Amino acid sequence: MADNNIVNFPEGINIGVDYYPEHWDEALWVKDADMMYDAGVKIVRMAEFAWCRLEPEEEKFDFEWLDRAVQLFGERDMYVILCTPTNTPPQWLFEKYPEIVQVDKTGKKIQTGIRGHRCLNSPVYRELSKKIIVKMAERYKDNKSVIGYQIDNELEANHCCCDVCKESFRNWVRKKYGTVQTVNKAYGNNVWSGEYSDFSQVMPPMNENDKWLNPSLNLDFNRYASDSTCDYVAFQSDIIRKISPDKLITTNTWLCANMPDFYDMFNELDIVSFDNYPAITLPKDEETLYSHGFHLDLMRGIKNKNFWIMEQLSGIVGSWTPMSRAIQPGMLKGYSLQAIAHGADAVIHFRWRTAVSGAEMYWQGIIDHSNVPGRRYKEFCELCNKVKEIQGLSTTVCRNKIAILYSSDNEYAFKNQHQAQEMHYFEQMKQWHDAFTCLGLGVDIINQTQNLDDYKIIVSPTMFVENKETTANLYKAADNGAAVILTNRSGERDYNNKCIMEQLPTVYSKLAGIKVTEYDVLPDGMKVAIRDEQNNIIYGKRWCDIIEENDNVEVLARYNEQFYKDAPAVTRNKYGNGEVYYFASVLNRDASIGFAKIMAEEHGLDIVENLPKGVEITYRYGEKKWRFIFNNTEKKQEIVIGKEKITLNPFDMEIEVV
Ligand code: GLA
Ligand code: ZN
């Protein structure tokens, strides 16, 4: 999948490791490199956080040690990804330029000595960052082993509240709305005397409890915070690209409290890369949706192409939290293969050896503190061998007929105002992802505004904040024959996060063919019985819309208790050539699977009957069709597909050309 003009893009499917040469005595490097070579490592990521070693004093650079490390891996035919070390400016820099420290919501400067605590907008920090990035890019521009760069580390949306950032937020608002009167109207600032008479009064949500602030301001601040981080990514990638137009550029993203908009952030980058730490302790409760297949599909959908794992689970996680259980036999290898099955072309493991100092000394690498290779190293070698056997996968891609739409606005607005206890935007996305997965079907998770023409089933959960393009696309998709799934809390807010003065689901009413007359909000743990057409009792949790259906709308399930007993809970409306399902509540797992099955059968998708829960089937397509069956459970599983019978041990995967 070599891109544009990137030369030296690694062919095939590759396994790698994150390595921190600056943590180890140089005498160890050769042994490490030899061991990596023997195992089959093809990519090594380095220099993340190494600023103090690369520039021990201002303008005194020392790249010689990194040259030696790069050379060592290059000589062993390994590719190197270098990180811009900007996540951790050195202590001298903080001392000399204290203004670069991030300010938190309470107005306090964050203590130095941790990481990621610098203000992305600080002019001095940008200038000093530029210098070290230029040095790095210049130094390795002709080096064939260095194939690309990771920008910074696990960037979050910029929530810094220093004076520079306050001003940058104000400017963002001014640019967007032009006058304070327009802002006042957009935000509904007539409530609580919130009207601005001058832009100087526009402030970021600086309150530990920002839930008391205007949700319109909060949503816009989140959008600004994302734009601000994207601007920082563009600042770094522009520097690198000017010097090294032939090397790939990415940033390692993750799911965190303040996520930037993934689609914007990766727009100018060559590939998506993700830090993948799947569940180590699998939940006992059948209703908990734990599969990282969801996250992997979300990552693939950012650019609709194959992606990389920049950090992959290799052992116990812990340090600032109590340690997790040891990873089960099979997890190290199985979870890496799971990433490949969902479209990863490289899986780089965090980290080669566990740190012996620093705050992360209990976040295990492949090799333990003792430096004695153990069970996990052995499994890592098995993984590398397995990956050698499946190089035919190179250039294959995932392609699915089911899409789930993701919207950063929904995530921001929902987080700001939880609609019910433990009700999360991601939950309903995961619920439908899981339901189709349990039928052996692959799912794409895509930007809400993406073209939907290729999809037969489109799940559009909790479309809370209006986006006119999305709304139009959904009407069009249904009209063209797709099945569209809408759920509770759709059509609630306008683009500025104000309530829409119409009966819910407002902009989706015609599409769904229903109106919500009232709703009930359920505390966590409460279940409301619902009966389906066969009178089976299923249940809803979190939320119950009480709805009336239009004529000709089918009711597929009704509430079986509460004051809304017999009111519709699931409806289906014929719209154009397609149909629109409305889920008034959040259904239990088996019920969701049941409805997913009805839709899949109607749209001619090949489902696998009786697939054990936790077993995932995905495909990659190229000249051949590759099938992956992954047992993401702690039990041995028997899988029957037509006449085939496949037995898989816990976390085992079967990969076959079919
Ligand atoms: C993140 C970071 C790494 C490391 C790991 C483990 O993914 O990117 O530097 O801190 O978590 O904690
Ligand atoms: Zn700042």
The largest pleated sheet is described as: 11 strands, mixed
Helical content stands at 25-40%
Mean pLDDT level = 97
Question: So how many helices?
Answer: 17
In one word, what is the shape?
Answer: globular
Structural class, from secondary structure content? alpha/beta
Quick structural summary:
About 30% of the residues lie in helices and about 20% in strands.
Task: Provide structural commentary.
This protein has 658 residues and is an alpha/beta fold. It contains 17 helices and 25 strands. Strands 10, 11, 12, 13, 14, 15, 16, 17, 18, 19 and 20 form an 11-stranded mixed beta sheet that branches. Strand 7 (273-276), helix 10 (293-303) and strand 8 form a beta-alpha-beta unit. Helix 5 (123-139) packs parallel to helix 8 and helix 11 (331-341) runs parallel beside helix 12 (375-389). The chain is globular. The structure holds alpha-D-galactopyranose (GLA) and zinc ion (ZN).
Pick out its properties.
658 residues; single chain; 9-stranded parallel β-sheet; alpha/beta; binds alpha-D-galactopyranose; binds zinc ion
What are the SSEs and their pairings?
Elements: E1 14-18, H1 26-39, E2 43-46, H2 51-54, H3 64-75, E3 79-83, H4 91-96, H5 123-139, E4 146-150, H6 163-177, H7 180-187, H8 215-243, E5 248-250, E6 252-253, H9 262-266, E7 273-276, H10 293-303, E8 307-312, H11 331-341, E9 344-349, H12 375-389, E10 402-406, H13 408-416, H14 425-437, E11 444-447, E12 457-460, H15 468-479, E13 483-487, H16 509-512, E14 514-521, E15 528-532, E16 537-549, E17 554-559, E18 568-575, E19 578-583, E20 585-587, H17 589-602, E21 615-621, E22 625-631, E23 637-641, E24 644-648, E25 653-657
Parallel strand pairs: 1-2, 1-9, 2-3, 3-4, 4-5, 6-7, 7-8, 8-9, 10-11, 10-12, 12-13, 13-19
Antiparallel strand pairs: 14-16, 15-16, 15-17, 16-20, 17-18, 18-19, 21-22, 22-25, 23-24
Bound molecules: alpha-D-galactopyranose and zinc ion (ZN).
